[in-house]
Amino acid sequence: MKYVLRRLGALLLTMFLVSLCTFAAFSGISGSAAEARLGTQATPERVAALREELGLNRPFAVRYAEWLSGFATGSLGDSLTYRQNVGELLRDKVLVSLLLSAMSFALIVLCSIPLSLLVVRLPGGPLDAAHTLFNQFCMSVPPFFTGLLLSWVFGVSLHWFTPGAFPGLSRTGDALRFLLFPAVSIAIPRTAMTVRMLRGTLLRELNRDYVKTAISRGSDRDTVLRRHVLKNALTPTVAFLAQMMAEIVAGVIVVEQVFGIPGLGRMLVVSISNRDYPVVQAIVVILAFWVVASNTVADCINVRIDPRLALGDK
Amino acid sequence: MKRNYYLLAGLAITGLLSAATLLGFFWTPCDSAAMTADKFLAPCPAHLFGTDNFGRDIFSRVMEGAGTSFLIALCTVAIGAAGGVLLGAVTGYFGGLADEILIRVGDALTAFPSILLALVVISLLGPGKPVNLILSLGLVFIPSFARVTRAAYAEAREVNYVKSVRLMGASHARVMLVHILPNTLPVLLSALTIGFNNAVLAEASMSYLGIGVTPPDASLGYMLSEAQSVFGRAPWYALTTGGVMILFLFGVGLIGEGLRFREGDAL
After folding, report:
1. Is pTM beyond 0.80 here?
2. Under an 8 A CB cutoff, do A139 and B253 touch?
């Protein structure tokens, strides 16, 4: 329990620093971006009026505190392009992106564990080499390329879904079917990475003495693998999968563009092109929070599995 | 010792593609910018990869686009590796408070999606310019190199050969450069192959999103975004462009695999 509290404290501290850095970086340029928006009409009076309207004249600390509290209340300032409150603008998009990353994560976990149990049985030999090559190949395929192919084959040719026409979260079944394809494109290279890591961990565990003991006492290799080895490989796997969350978020940003999904990633890219900084900084903090929070959860799960881990991290 | 087929295959693939890319800087079969009436030609002897919606030869465009992509990736890795190795070596070797702080900051940064960081930096610098793209990606790649190097130097600090050269009067700089650096090469080479692939992927993703390389320059990522819009008429555009990129990443990945294999860490 003490450990969980300490991790929560660290989470808050990290997010405080991340949000502070983001806000400081963007407040440095958002003034000039606002002036650029006025274009040729940028007389000194207009610029002053705009700065006043955007609240850029008030002290930095006040603006930061107001913005930070906006994450709780949902008022994160107005978007420069859409003339709408950023909080309202992003509310549905957050859910779409969260759903997509959760689905990708589930796919990775569901595929990589059975696959790694399979490949761990074939160290050495031609099958092992074939698996290494195939694994390396899967890691080399960029998610947006897979997405491009999938949206063509299953979207345009087979009409299983319509690329660019996301049905909305209210129609849950259709939305899930739509998101399955982007989730698969994100999951393929990540699954390959996870299988590779799990295989290494399992092979290391299989060389331990307790495995020899169990086998010499008459257990067969499969039982040892499932009962003992998998359990011991669990903590490094959980830690690895948590790190995978950052990669998944990176995939989500790009793949949303491929399939035309109205999520945070797409909004981020559009807002960067539009120099719409209130939106950009909010999305950056939300995505960072998602990654840091999932790492915190993974640490807490690992301490439940193996309480010794809490001792090392003082 | 068993022959290292991964390394050989990787070197062969990468070498072949690099040669073709290098050639693309000086000569291409057709003028890559020339628009002709032969739109959407399927691959044929005259146009190995077919032509696109403007009748441009895709093979020539891929040669040049790959050049842009790999050049950007090389610069990115150069910045990331130079900055990272320097930071990691100094902090790992001397230790102390700066080291502690750097580990924490590095941990926080490597937990971040690299593309998110790069997008933040590029939106601060201004999108659409190759220089800004290289700078933003280079900065983002520093922490991962710093982390690897720091670990190697921190370990070497306690080893007897380092202590004895110090006793013989070698300066800190000499110990770091002449004595420790060669011993970190295996780790560093492996990190370089991974970093290079990540850089190619990151550049491709950002150019695909329209934030990296923009016309008139072309990179593989940007070309893929073009190819997506004409996929129905010319699927070979996306398939060949993507295929070349995948083959290259595969080759470099195999080199990395081979290097680890040589170090005896076949896992």
Report:
1. yes
2. yes
